[in-house]
Each structure stands twice: as C-alpha cells, then as structure tokens.
Amino acid sequence: MAASGSGNQSGKAFYVTTPIYYVNDAPHLGHAYTTVAGDVLTRWHRQRGERVWFLTGTDEHGQKVLRTAEAKGVSPQEWCDKLVEEAWKPLWRHLEIANDDFIRTTEKRHTDRVREFVQDLYDKGEIYQGGYEGPYCVGCEEYKLPGELIAGEGEHAGEQLCPIHKRPVEILKEENYFFKLSEYGDRLLAHYEANPDFIQPESARNEVVNFVRQGLQDLSISRSTFDWGVPVPWDGRHVIYVWVDALLNYATAVGYNQNQDTFEGSFPADVHLIGKDILRFHAVIWPALLMANGLRLPGRIVANGWLLVGGEKMSKSNLTGISPRDITSHFGVDAFRWYLLRAIAYGQDGSFSWEDLAARYTSELANDYGNLASRVAAMVGKYFDGVLPEATADGEAERAVHDSLAKTVAEADRKIGDDVEFQAGIQTIFDFVKQVNGYISEQEPWKVAKDDSPEGRARLATILYTAAESLRAVAVLLNPFMPESSQRLWESLGAEPALGALAGQRVQDAGEWGRLPAGSTITKGAVLFPRLEDKPGA
Ligand SMILES: [Zn+2]
Structure pTM? Predict the structure, then answer.
C-alpha cells in the first residue's frame, strides 16, 4: 500500500449522523430533539480528544416535496433552496449545532454518487425489473404491508390509513426496479445476533428482529410516475426511490467513490441517530444495501421515541408542531438543549410540556446549579477579594466531594459517551451539583467566616476552594449540553488563563482534583439562569 502524503492517517473519526430531514416544511421540535442529541454526543466525544465528524442535512427529493412545492406554486428546487437557507440552516446555527457538514440530496456531489452506487448494484445483479401493486403512504414515502394499515373512522370511514400519519394510503401500481432485499434476511439476523448493540434501544432491536424474521420482500427502488429525483442511470424514465437516495447521504457526504481518504477516515457511521418512525429504513434496508455493495456496516443505530405534545406525536405531517424558537425565546438556547435530553430517557417516548420545562428550569438550572455558581463567586469575592484561596485543611467532607467527583465523571462519560443515555448522564452530573450544594449548607462558610483565627481562615479557604473546583468540573461536563452558560461559568471561575479554552478540556481529566489553581481570579459574572420573571419578555 502506498503511503499517503497528506491527511490524518491516525485513525477513523467518530462519525455521528442525524437523519437528513424532509424539507417539505420548516423544522419542528422533533427535528431539533434529534439534532441537539447529535450535537451533544459530538461535543462530548470532541472533549474526549477524539476526532469527530458530525453530519446533518436535508432530504429534498420525492413525491411529498414535489406536491408541497406545487401547492406553493414554485419549483421543487426553489422550495428546497428557500427552506434550507431561511429555516433549516438558521435554526441549527441558532441552536449552536456544531455540524461539520450539511448535505442536501439535490447536490451534485450526492446525486452523481447515488447513480454510481445504484449502477454498481445493478451490475452486480442485485437489481431486477418487476411490477408491484400495493398501498403506499406518501407521508412515509413507503409501501405499506396490508396488515400494517388501520381502518379509518369519521371522515375516513371505509378507508385504510397509514398507522403513522392516520391518513388514507394510495394504491400504487408501478413497473419498477427492485433490489433483492429478500435475500439479505439471514445475513441481517446474523449481524443483529453478533452485534447486540447494533440497534438501540432494546425495544427497537426486538421490533426489527421480529420484522426480519417474518421474511423480507424485495424493495422497489425506483419510481416512474413523477420525476423529482435522481434518474436511474440505465433507464431515464425512472427516478431512484427517495429512501435509497436519502440513506446514501451517509456515504456520499464523506467522499464515497470520490475521496478515498475522507471516506476511509469516517465511514461507516459510529452512531446513526434516528426517530423510531424510520427505524426499518436504517436497520434493515441501509445495512442490506451496504452488504450488497461490499461496504462496512455502521456501528449503532439509536432510535429516539415519539415526542408528544399534549398527547399528540410531533410528526412530519403535524403542522401544529411547536417551533423551537418559541421555546428558546422564553427559556434561552441552553435550557432548550438541556431540557428534552433531561426530561426524556433517550429511546423512550416522552412529552414536551411548558409547565414541566418551567418547573425544571427553576428548580434545577436556576436554583440548584445557577445559585451554586453565584453563591460561590460571591463568597470568594467577599471573603478573599475574588482571589481563589488554597485548600489546606481537607477533611472527611472534602474527601467525599473529591471521590464523588471522580465517580461522577466516570459515570457520566460511560452514560453519555458510550451508552448514548443522555438523561442518566445529566442525572449523574446534577446529583453531584446537589451534593456540592449540600456540602456548602453543612459547612456553613458564612459562619466559619466569623472566625478570624488562622485555622478559621484555612477552613473557609478550603470550603470555597472545594466548591469552586467542583464547579470547574461541572462546567466541563455540562459544556456539551449548554455551551453558552458553561462558558460564562468558565470565565467566572477565571479558569481560562491556567487551563485554556473550555472546549479543549478533556472529559477524562475533569475528575482529577485540584486542576483549578489557587490564585485564579473569580468574578461574579451575569447570573447563569435568570429567574423567569426577570427574563425579558417573560
Ligand atoms: Zn405514513
């Protein structure tokens, strides 16, 4: 093998993806949920010192986008361009999403490679021509099995509905090209068996295994009744099925068939984050397509559950969805990023509620966390003129905090970095915050401050150092979730001169006691989480 003269050959990036989202409307809470999760996972691994590649983007082909554009009286490309530039990309910037790339399936770098990928399958005999008739949901862009449909009621009485969209399916009959998906059932089952973590959570894995065990049908991979898509290379009357086109973004975005260095430096994804409504596409069709073309399979597919608002699922077709900006304008971006991952166990169904968000904001962010930070800064200001004193009188209580921090860091790293269990990770970090609050309450530094003796001063210094050093670690651990407030805490602690930028702090080092040097300048910055009644517009 020839040595490469350039590029990082030191190993593969940790590669995280969100789904690419349909651009038939502006992003809603459900899209933001998955994308924030991807961003937090990305930032966490970056703080482990790993090279990470985080991809998101938009899925712009298919009948649904075409119909939406027609209804708006514009071309589908104009519709996509407008939404991507005016809605999608600005929202991700607003939410501080640190994606490395944003792929659009109408880009030439994608469409050319999709044609090559499908041509390769065709040349290998994996694709044949055939006919198919069956119920089709345009909302899902998917043929449904008759057994999956539900009977309509009310205005849809007598009709068969998609179980996800609760809208009538259409009977589609097409002469199409088919991928021999049915031949991959055994290999897929063997892969699930050999890789128990391939599909998370367990409920999603069970659903997929049961589905594949029932036997797979070949997959129609082209459409000829409309033309908004990537033309089939050997038959221009057809376009490639939008889901095959979309799934391939994970390969085309990192240089499939184009740049071998970047492709091998990233592909396959370590974690595909998805919603459970698109589980089968990712856990069945995607790996089968990769097997058919001799490519490696992704590490994990992690599905989040339904997001409910007042009992209604936030779906692709539910236009009553809450805009993420409605929430951030009231609570701020950090609280928004934190809340859904805090309130819902990732992978389970969960609800968004204004009342619950307001309650948690006040009790956990403002009272437990924000208050701790401002109290410690105020006391170092008052008793030590804002200069962090040295801890010279560590006792039992301090050693308990040191031990607890080390355990917190290890546990949070395992839960968030390895297991993709954000809620459990946040819980661990906030348990530590509570413990530090309890430590201060028990040590009563405001009483110790009345003792002017050298022993009293040493004791006071030790208490305040212990609290400030704990906050130094909390800023590191919460930075992936809440980068803005974490940065303000970092500045308030005067940590940057000695330790460098917050984003450069390694998670592995966060539990090492005593990193924040005595002598650091502690300032009472702005309140991390202002009380809601103090917030402008509240
Ligand atoms: Zn549907």
Answer: 0.92
